[in-house]
Specification:
Its cofactor is Mg(2+). It is found in: Cytoplasm. InterPro entries: Gln_synt_N, Gln_synt_N_sf, Gln_synth/guanido_kin_cat_dom, Gln_synth_cat_dom, Gln_synth_gly_rich_site, Gln_synth_I, Gln_synth_N_conserv_site. By secondary structure, the protein is of the alpha+beta class. It folds into two domains: about 100 residues, Glutamine synthetase, N-terminal domain (Ubiquitin-like (UB roll), Roll); about 350 residues, Glutamine synthetase/guanido kinase, catalytic domain (Creatine Kinase, Chain A, domain 2, 2-Layer Sandwich). It has 14 helices and 17 strands. The strands form three sheets. Strands 6, 9, 10, 11, 12, 13, 14, 15, 16 and 17 form a ten-stranded mixed β-sheet that branches. A five-stranded mixed β-sheet has the order 2-1-5-4-3, with helices on both faces. Strands 7-8 form a two-stranded antiparallel ribbon. A hairpin with a 5-residue loop joins strand 1 and strand 2. The longest helix is centred in the middle third of the chain and has 21 residues. It starts with a helix and ends with a helix.
């Protein structure tokens, strides 16, 4: 939107903006914010803004709590939901005494990854386009008390509501189980909701490519938008989620980006389309290569496949992520690549003969990921493949789930749990620390807190399904 601070200041004056919302990401991808009146804008752009890092999850302890936000003029948008005209400015975080980047600032990891990419001489730009899926529900209730644990999801278009008789009527036209891909109204009851979300996204600067109902019959949606550079692709995803969630709330609905909110229904993934460029030229196209790939693209794939287990705690960071990563659905658990096969974790989209359109599609990530960590992790794995010319195993164009058991058994799979993925990261992380992109401090913090706050907590909490299985033992 802007290229420098002067443009931000002029825009604020011209548009009569009243407030500036200074935003930043915590370690896990949840956006935080502080609001200032516009008379504080110039000083904040020039000198930054102090905040308490000890109050932010995954940041600092009380004795080292002072941190500083540095707004980025190139990452701004007008908030469509605030009553007063408000400009949002995204920020990175530095130590207030040294002005050195804070090692646990996720956005700073993206910035360091882009700088490292240029320093290698391999490429100067990484373009990335995520495809985050989400569920749109009419209502959600849940509780996790020791004596009262439940979840209740209400979706007017789900097949399980066909027998309901509420308020004296049921209008039918429910979407059959797992048949939600692209039906028209009246089965698709959310077309107007999607249109409203798309309009809000467009007004915020997104270039939308398409929007449609996804496979999950209880309200799964997908809205695709155009690619951007690594850092701004991560910025854009956080803005996308903010707009989708708030617009849904405004219209009386609720949205979740959980990878697997419903047992048996399609999970929500976030396929990531990636390509490298240098001096304005694409580097992934090779006329005679498999799927139209260059040697560099093939080596990039080799690196991603080699390190897929290690980057999984960033691309699929939640316990719930592994409810989606199970064989039998389109969820990609098999560490192979293919030009067409959607059961492979890495696919080469059919893009014709245009070198500029050639890219790879990494199908493993899901939208619970912090993009400021997930996107650099994918890039660093691929760059390791290019630097070391890692050759992937031969591509497989058959349905992997239809292979004979002895043949399928030999295909390497992703770890089936967050705990095992964290172990893989512990054992394989040197490629991430190249160029100090991921620091040892960040990696150790991520692993220890994920284990303590999620793995161990879920381990000690009985699940309601256990009562169905074991209550009468």
């Amino acid at each position: 939107m802007f290229s420098n601070s002067s443009q931000v200041i002029n825009f604020v004056k011209e548009k009569n903006i009243r407030f500036i919302d200074v935003r930043f990401s915590d370690l896990y991808g949840t956006m935080q914010h502080m609001t200032i009146p516009t008379n504080m804008l110039e000083d904040t752009l020039e000198n930054g803004m102090m905040f308490d890092g000890s109050s932010i999850k995954g940041f600092t302890e009380v004795h080292e709590s002072d941190m500083k936000l540095i707004p980025d003029p190139t990452a701004a948008f007008v908030d469509p939901f605030r009553k007063e005209p408000t400009l949002v400015l995204y920020s990175s975080i530095v130590d207030p005494f040294t002005n050195e980047p804070f090692s646990r600032d996720p956005r700073g990891v993206c910035q360091k990854a882009e700088a490292y990419l240029k320093s290698t001489g391999i490429a100067d730009t990484c373009f990335l386009a995520p495809e985050p899926e989400f569920y749109l529900f009419d209502s959600i209730q849940y509780r996790a008390d020791p004596h009262d644990t439940f979840v209740k999801i209400i979706s007017d278009e789900a097949s399980w509501t066909a027998g309901d008789y509420e308020e004296g009527h049921n209008l039918g036209d429910k979407i059959p189980f797992q048949q939600g891909y692209a039906p028209v109204s009246p089965m698709d009851k959310n077309a107007d909701i999607r249109d409203a979300i798309v309009r809000a996204l467009q007004e915020t600067g997104f270039e939308i490519e398409r929007a449609h109902h996804e496979v999950g019959s209880a309200g799964q949606q997908e809205i695709n938008y155009t690619y951007s550079t690594l850092l701004h692709a991560a910025d854009n995803l956080t803005v996308f989620k903010y707009i989708v969630k708030n617009k849904a709330i405004e219209l009386g609905k609720t949205v979740t980006f959980m990878p697997k909110p419903l047992c048996g229904q399609a999970g929500s993934g976030m396929h990531c389309h990636v390509s490298l460029w240098k001096d304005g030229d694409p580097l992934f196209y090779g006329e005679s290569g498999y799927g139209g790939l260059s040697d560099m693209a093939r080596w990039f794939i080799g690196g991603v496949l080699r390190h897929a287990a290690a980057i999984l705690p960033f691309t699929n960071p939640s316990i719930n992520s592994y409810r989606r990563l199970v064989p039998g659905f389109e969820a990609p658990v098999n560490l192979v690549y293919s030009a067409r096969n959607r059961s492979a974790c890495l696919r080469i989209p059919i893009t014709g003969t245009s070198p500029k359109a050639k890219r790879i599609e990494y199908r493993v990530p899901d939208p619970s990921a912090n993009p400021y960590l997930a996107f650099p992790a994918i890039l660093m794995a691929g760059l390791d493949g290019v630097r070391n010319r890692i050759e992937p195993a031969d591509p497989i164009d058959k349905d992997l789930y239809e292979l004979p058991p002895e043949e399928y058994r030999d295909i390497e799979k992703l770890p089936p749990s967050l705990d095992l993925a964290l172990k893989a990261l512990e054992e394989d992380n040197e490629f991430l620390t190249e160029g100090d992109v991921f620091t040892t401090d960040l990696l150790e913090t991520w692993i220890s807190q994920k284990r303590a706050d999620e793995v161990q907590q879920l381990f000690i909490h009985p699940h309601p399904f256990e009562f169905e299985m074991y209550y009468n033992c």
